[in-house]
Amino acid sequence: MFGQLDISKIDSLVKTMCLAWASDKCEYPNETESLYQKEVIDAVASGADELAAISAWMQQLQTTKAGAV
Q1: For all residues of the chain together, what is the average pLDDT?
Q2: Where are the domains of the chain?
Q3: CA–CA separation, 47 vs 49, rounded Å?
Q4: What is the mean pLDDT of residues 23-46?
Q5: Which domain of life is it from (predicted)?
């Protein structure tokens, strides 16, 4: 099924799922999306592995939330 989707639609779906997961991790939604842009989109554009970049972004958000509690 995913093999039939345009890559931009897959990227959009992944971003939507990631931001939904992160919805309670940051106080400000814009911060979450900004971090996603920096840590995932920009990293992948620079040649990083997408799954590794997403994992690092998730870890960063969890660490940030833990520090805020």
Answers
A1: 88
A2: 7-67
A3: 7
A4: 90
A5: Bacteria
